[in-house]
């Protein structure tokens, strides 16, 4: 089902053209808000916002904690677009639809994509409330062929066989660590490997143990397909996981995770995540090599 659906370049372009006809903002940075992290859009000034239901070609958000709005605005001298709500494979969207906004962002002239998510920790040193800079990912659906790039390749966006080593920009990861020190939150910050699983089930204990043994630090149900699409079309990527729970790895442990507690940790850490992302956007350099006219 996932590899058959294709979205043509024209369809992405139509959505980008519609958005450019509705707002004067021409974003350089795009932010995808994870579960409970929609407040990242609140810091944007001079906002223009669009419910997904009004945007031609956009899928709809169905998950609590994902408002379903695209917000454009200015942040510390940079023009941004923020997805208040992302699309997940488990909602029944094809991977093309799940990642639809990423190529639209490319056509809008975006150069850098910031992805955020809520994730459960497997690494012993990662506690709920900690923030993990994503150094790399394991795309479990992708490993078995559920890849948004399956099917005919559109060379206008990128090559047939894109490299994924180094897909999380090193310079931005270093900058984020420096900012965390300056904000006095270095104690909360870690760097690690995120794994995407299909969801919507949280992990069994056996699955949690398997992921832990494989070297995964945090697990979630998103992000990897977006990053694959972004890297394919040449966007620079920065990723953050907010650790919302420890994944249960012991049969003696009676804890269990639920979506409301995931959202609650998002609320508790919203200010810190907001400060980090704001500073990162403020201090990142933009090369302006992807203006909408020469985007793809
Ligand atoms: O959109 P993200 O990846 O932040 O959402 C995570 C994974 C599930 O969608 C949900 C589980 O609580 O949070
Ligand atoms: N798969 C998965 N996704 C999450 N999102 C937030 N917490 C979790 C978790 O424990 N497992």
TrEMBL record:
Binding residues for phosphate, per the UniProt record?
35, 66, 86-88, 118, 222
Q: What class of enzyme is it?
A: transferase
Residues that, per the record, bind a purine D-ribonucleoside:
203, 245
Which is one GO molecular function term here?
purine-nucleoside phosphorylase activity
Q: Which GO terms describe its biological process?
A: purine ribonucleoside salvage
Q: Which UniProt keywords apply?
A: Glycosyltransferase, Purine salvage, Transferase
**Source species, domain of life:** Eukaryota
Which pathway does it operate in? Answer: Purine metabolism; purine nucleoside salvage
**What SUPFAM superfamilies has UniProt attached to this entry?**
Purine and uridine phosphorylases (SSF53167)
Task: Report domain Nucleoside phosphorylase positions.
Answer: 29-281
Q: How does it assemble?
A: Homotrimer.
Return the similarity comment: Belongs to the PNP/MTAP phosphorylase family.
* Stated name of the protein: Purine nucleoside phosphorylase
Q: Which organism is it from?
A: Perca fluviatilis
């Amino acid at each position: 089902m996932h590899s058959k659906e294709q979205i043509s370049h024209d369809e992405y372009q139509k959505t980008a053209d519609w958005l450019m006809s509705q707002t004067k903002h021409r974003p350089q940075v795009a932010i995808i808000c994870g579960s409970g992290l929609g407040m990242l859009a609140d810091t944007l000034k001079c906002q223009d916002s669009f419910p997904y239901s009004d945007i031609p070609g956009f899928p709809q958000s169905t998950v609590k904690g994902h408002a379903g709005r695209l917000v454009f605005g200015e942040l510390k001298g940079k023009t941004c677009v923020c997805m208040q709500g992302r699309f997940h494979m488990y909602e029944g969207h094809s991977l093309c639809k799940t990642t639809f906004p990423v190529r639209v962002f490319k056509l809008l002239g975006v150069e850098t994509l910031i992805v955020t998510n809520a994730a459960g920790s497997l690494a012993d040193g990662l506690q709920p409330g900690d923030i993990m800079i994503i150094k790399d990912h394991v795309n479990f659906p992708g490993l078995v062929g559920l890849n948004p790039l399956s099917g005919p390749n559109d060379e206008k966006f990128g090559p047939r066989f894109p490299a994924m080593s180094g897909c999380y920009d090193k310079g931005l990861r270093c900058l984020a660590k420096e900012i965390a020190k300056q904000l006095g939150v270095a104690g909360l910050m870690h760097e690690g490997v995120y794994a995407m699983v299909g969801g919507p089930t949280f992990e069994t204990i056996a699955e949690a143990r398997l992921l832990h043994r494989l070297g995964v630090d945090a697990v979630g149900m998103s992000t990897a397909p977006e990053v694959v699409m972004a890297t394919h079309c040449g966007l620079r990527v920065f990723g953050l996981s907010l650790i919302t729970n420890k994944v249960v790895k012991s049969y003696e442990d009676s804890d269990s995770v639920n979506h409301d507690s995931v959202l609650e940790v998002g609320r508790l850490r919203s200010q810190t995540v907001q400060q980090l992302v704001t500073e990162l956007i403020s201090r990142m350099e933009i090369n302006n090599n992807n203006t909408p006219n020469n985007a793809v």
